[in-house]
Design goal:
By secondary structure, this protein is of the alpha/beta class. The protein has 13 helices and 15 strands. The strands form four sheets. The protein has an eight-stranded parallel beta sheet. It has a three-stranded antiparallel beta sheet with strand order 13-14-15, with no helix packed on it. A two-stranded antiparallel ribbon has the order 1-2. It starts with a strand and ends with a helix.
């Protein structure tokens, strides 16, 4: 049986399973929070960018006020958005989040992404190209995060969507270590390499999108979620559980925390009832075999923008930089076409983000440089 609690590197405890709130709609998320508390949830994953923290705060206030739960029993996470990475903006943004959540402190505050947008720019600048970015270093942002702890507004601080190189650099320059790195984890992308890397440095992985996205299973290019896998259905029947419960149990067995999202009461209850059974060795072996490094996140918008920016900065030759820059200026189609036998870049949506997770060597990029000069002349 897996433990329901995991201890962070600062000695604080974090519930292993929480409720995700991304895209939980107004009018639904309040009820979801109350239903989750009734079902036994104490861990709630929020973010300023989600735009629903005020309603979540109303639900938390109601639950605490009616005696359903005590504040000290809850573990509330929120995240700093990309437009506010400047050091002197971090504490004020956390204070804003706290006002929405109607709390005096947050249990865990994360840097949502390791890159910054311009402070007065759009929150989701998918059409602005490189001009959307700010040059603020996440090390500066981290100083602001540490100040959140120093001033008592955050009990713990962490990161989200950071790769191993970024984590290593942060650890060499921080005064307070991150306790968590929140990234996508599901059987299609079990992140075992990153989980071990973080474990060696006393950082816990929290997995978002743990079930994949069933609603997108029919979209070409998206990996089918393992909850629909006939073999996983068989495993679930063997244990008298559902495929969802099998997948969540498996992920928790990797030593991580998970935050499945739902606003449906029956699914909220289903998702937390995963601690009363143990998968067999052959079950785990099969679920391990489902890993193919296919991701559900970062399939569009600034995800591609970020990936290109990093490849251009760190990976490509001058010719390749020009090729990517020109392709990007044309909107980055899912497959950047072959150009006069000069270069072929294959970028399916589900591999966007490989660089973010330090796996650029597995990205499906093919370079054929018969005549690089031809590319510059192509219209």
């Amino acid at each position: 049986m897996s433990s329901k609690i995991i201890t962070l590197n600062n000695g604080r405890n974090m519930p292993v399973l929480g409720l995700g709130t991304y895209k939980s709609s107004p009018g639904q998320v309040h009820r979801a929070i109350i239903d989750a508390i009734d079902a036994g949830y104490r861990h709630f994953d929020c973010a300023w960018f989600y735009g629903n923290e005020a309603e979540i705060g109303g639900a938390l206030k109601e639950a605490i006020g009616t005696g359903k739960v005590k504040r000290e029993e809850l573990f509330i996470t929120s995240k700093l958005w990309n437009n506010f990475h400047k050091k002197d903006k971090v504490v004020p943004m956390l204070k804003e989040t706290l006002s929405y959540l109607k709390l005096e402190y947050i249990d865990l505050y994360l840097i949502h992404w390791p890159f910054a947008f311009k402070e007065n720019g759009a929150l989701w600048p998918i059409s602005e190209g490189a001009e959307a970015y700010s040059d603020i270093d996440y090390l500066e942002t981290w100083e602001g995060m540490e100040e959140c702890v120093n001033q008592g507004y955050a009990k713990s601080i962490g990161i989200s969507n950071f790769n191993s190189e970024q984590i290593e650099r942060l650890l060499k320059n921080c005064k307070i270590k991150p306790v968590v790195n929140q990234v996508e984890v599901n059987p299609n992308c079990n992140q075992k390499k990153l989980i071990q890397f973080c474990k060696d440095r006393e950082i816990i992985i929290t997995g978002y999108c743990p079930l994949g996205r069933v609603g997108e299973a029919v979209i070409r290019g998206f990996p089918p979620p393992t909850v629909l896998d006939p073999k996983v259905v068989e495993i679930a029947k063997k244990h008298n559980k559902t495929p969802v419960q099998v997948v969540l149990n498996y992920l928790i067995s990797l030593g991580i925390t998970v935050i499945p999202k739902s606003v449906t009461k029956s699914r909220i209850v289903e998702n937390i009832n995963v601690f009363d059974f143990k998968l067999d060795v052959e079950d785990i072996t099969y679920l391990d075999s489902c890993n193919n490094n296919s991701r559900k996140r970062m399939g569009h918008g600034f995800g591609e923008l970020y990936k290109l920016r990093n490849i251009i900065q760190y990976r490509l030759s001058p010719f390749e930089q020009r090729a990517f820059a020109k392709a990007f200026s044309h909107g980055l189609p899912n497959v950047i076409r072959r150009t006069k036998d000069s270069v072929l870049y294959v970028v399916p949506p589900f591999v966007i983000g490989y660089l973010v997770y330090d796996q650029v060597e597995k990205l499906h990029l093919k370079y054929m440089r018969k005549n690089p000069a031809d590319y510059a002349d192509e219209k």
